[in-house]
Write a structure and sequence with these properties.
Oligomer: single chain
CATH topology of the largest domain: Metallo-beta-lactamase, Chain A
CATH class of the largest domain: Alpha Beta
CATH superfamily of the largest domain: Ribonuclease Z/Hydroxyacylglutathione hydrolase-like
CATH architecture of the largest domain: 4-Layer Sandwich
Helix content: 25-40%
Largest sheet: 7 strands, mixed
Strand content: 15-25%
Length: 463
Amino acid sequence: MKITPLGAAGGEVTGSCYSVQTKNARILVDCGLFQGGKKSEALNRPPLAPNRRLDAVILTHGHLDHTGRLPLLAKMGYDGPVYGTPATLDMTGLILRDSARLQVADNDRRNRRRMRAAQPLQQPLYTPDDAEAIISRLRPVPYHQPFAVAPGIKAVWADSGHMLGSASIQLLVEEDGRTKRVVFSGDLGPRSALILREYEPFQEADLVFLESTYGGRDHRDFRETVTEFVRIVQESVKSGGKILVPTFAVGRAQLITLLLAWMFRTGKAKPFPIFLDSPMAIEATNIYMRHKEIFDDQMTKFIGDRPLRADLKTMKTTATADESRAINDVAGACLVMAGAGMCNAGRIVHHLKANLWKPGTHVLIVGYQGHGSLGRQLVDGAKEVKIFGEPVAVKAKIHTLGGFSAHAGQTDLLHWFSQIAPSKPRVVLTHGEDDQRAALAKLLQKKFRLPSVSPAMGETIEL
């Protein structure tokens, strides 16, 4: 068996994709888009040549950096199955449709510049038709039950606690009269997170691909982060400033919405205007409410005691561009949740351009910011940024709330791995920057006496 990382390796965090090749089959585990700056985005291309055999694709979860290259498979003629949990497939459809729309819109904008410069026009990476072609291939699988995905390969999905429907996957591969077990952690969530259940570690593996996004550090304590969030909101409302929250439409938008509902229900703040300025986040929230069966007990009780809408009478969903622009005219304190989460596209960029230069503005960074992204520049303390080619002074207060991350920190990564460590697997670290992988590798050696490797993109691991 040969397994080759075709993304999220060599220090790159995004673009998660693994080619798994046996004597009898080839599958992909995830097929994600590279995100961040131009250097990362330039890597977006089909993961396999059109003439390469491919029997199936299996998904750990629906985030764009794990699903965003799926339409490229449709473009190259792939018409096989794409397996994932029911909630993952709902989210994948939503995310791919949005991505395809943005691919076309961004390409149209760039082509207008090329026309003015008398340069050749280009085609988008993929189109809505490509997205629909691959969405039609989505096939649901249950948690915990071995499922045949290709000749000689069964897969088991277990909750990873990262986003709605997310999973770690164990492959059971029959080869040369032996059963080999390969585990892909997928993205693991923190055990302290709200809404979703905690991750469920596997107990046995010959080979483990372990994510290392935060392998070198822990996040701030979740409860401390909530306390800071409450303080920032209270102070901003008192001063009458705008609060901008670059929000990943799936996961972070729902968490912030839940915290605001809790603040209003418990009297920690009087209701004030809130805008969920993301059609995608609006639909994602609807998908969440269709999958209450995978909520944790605390969330189930919270929404059972009183409907969220009863606490959120001042929240407005703004689906259209005109409604989004009208937020600029809102006087006084308000909170705006808008995508994209890394500030690299979407409506949040327009809100930042209109408000970053105002000292009364607060920007809450509540998720990972990729290298080269506008969000990363703000986190790193940039005094001036360029938005749509125009310099914008950064006078707003930038707050980084790492405790809201949907990724497990170092301690939770080690806890997840401790359950599988007694089987003495080989360990491969991916989905992390070089310093994060190196720190985690050192701890795995010290704590479990297990060496690990950190492969480059395209480097093959044989089992």
